[in-house]
Amino acid sequence: MHLVYADENNNVYDHPDLFGVARSGDSLVELLEEDLIPLPPGATLVGLPHTRAIGMDPKSGRMMPLPGNYQAVGALLPQGYTRFYVPGYSKTDKTQMFPLFGYTAVVWKDGGFYVAAGRSDDPELWNPENCDRAEVKKGVDRLLEKYPENRLYRHLSNCALGYECLTSSNTFLQRWEGAVPVSFACNAGCFGCISEQPDDSGFVSPQTRLQFKPTVEEVVEIMLEHLRTPESIISFGQGCEGEPSTQAKTIVEAIKQVRAKTSMGYININTNAGLTDHLRAITDAGLDLMRVSTISALDDHYNAYYRPRGYTLANVEKTLKYATDKGVYTSINYLVFPGVTDREEEIEAMIGFAKRTGLKLIQMRNLNIDPDAYLSIIPKAQGEIYGMKTLLDIFREELPDVVIGSYTHVPPVAKK
C-alpha cells in the first residue's frame, strides 16, 4: 500500500518505502487492506495543488512529509462508489483552495492503483467510459437543428460538450436520466456551490449557472423528447442552475402539459426542499421522483453549509414527508465526508430523519469541497467517529426498507 505522489509536471509515482496514508476529518490514519478496492473504471487521478505528500514509515508507524517538491494525489470516483477516506496531505499554502471535487485516498498495491472506497451502487449506468462523445455530438446537432429557437438545448449543449456533464449528455443521447434546468436563482448560499460563488470565497466554480428564465414551451419540448421509454427520467435541478422550485409556476405548467400528452417515464426534481408550498404544488401537478440535497439532519451543521435563506431544516423535512405521503418516490442526495458523516450524532440524526420522512432511497454522494475549508465552518464532533464502512452497515441494519445507493433510481414497481 505504497504512497502515491506527483511532481510539478503531474507525473505520478509510487514510493518504494513509504506507505500511503489518508485522512478522516482532520486526522491522519493508516489505511487497511479491507478499506481498499482497485481504482474503478472511469476514475481519474489528480494532483492536490499547494500540498505536500505525506507517507508512513511501515517500520516505525511514523507519518512524514515527502522531501522535495512533491504533491499529494487523490482519485475522483465515478458514481456508484462511496469514498471511505480523503487523501493524506499537508498544505504548503493554506490560503489556496482545492478545486471543487471529491478527493479519495489512493495508494499503489500489487502493481496497480487502489482507492479507499467501496461500491454502493451499480457503476455501469454512470460510468463516463460508457458515454460515447461522438454520439453525444450527433445528438446535439440533431436536436439543435430540430429546435433552433430552444435556448435550453443550446445551454445544455455546452454542458454536454464543454463540461462533459453526463446528465446533459443523456439529454442528447435520449437515455436514462436527462437534464432540464429551469432556474438562475437560489434560496441557499451553499458554501460549496459548484455553479455560483462570491468573488471573495476563494473557490472557483467549475461550471456556469443558467443565465435566463426558460419558457414553458422550451421546457416541455425537452421533456417530451426525453420521456420516450418506460425507464426514462427527466430531472429539474441540475448543477448548472439554482433551486428549481423558485420557478414552480413554470414547472407546474410544464408537467401538466407533458402529462396531458404522455404518461411515459418519470419526472424528477433535485431540490433543497426549502420552499415547501412551491414543492407541494409541483408534487400535486404529477411529480414522480424527488431527490432532496442535504449534508446533515442536524440544524447547526446543515445551516453552516447550506446557509438557507428564508427556510429551515424543518421545512425540508415537511416537504419530504408531504411528497412521500402523496406517493412520490423520495430520496436524499446525501453529501458525505469521511470523519463527519460517520460521526455518532450525525448517524443517529439521519436515521431519525429517514424514518420520520418515509425516505425510500439514500444516495451517497462524495462531497465536492476543499477538506480544510469545510472542516473550518462546521461543528466539531460530539461523539465517536465510526468510519464510513460502519456507517453503511448501520444504515442497512437500521433502515432495512431504505435503498442505499449512489444515484437516482426508479421505484422497484414500474409505472403501469
TrEMBL record:
Signal peptide start-end: none
Gene3D superfamilies noted in UniProt: Aldolase class I
GO MF: 4 iron, 4 sulfur cluster binding; catalytic activity; metal ion binding
Keyword Metal-binding in annotation: yes
Cofactor: [4Fe-4S] cluster
Keywords recorded for this protein, A-Z: 4Fe-4S, Iron, Iron-sulfur, Metal-binding, S-adenosyl-L-methionine
Name of the molecule in the record: Radical SAM protein
Source organism (scientific name): Cohnella xylanilytica
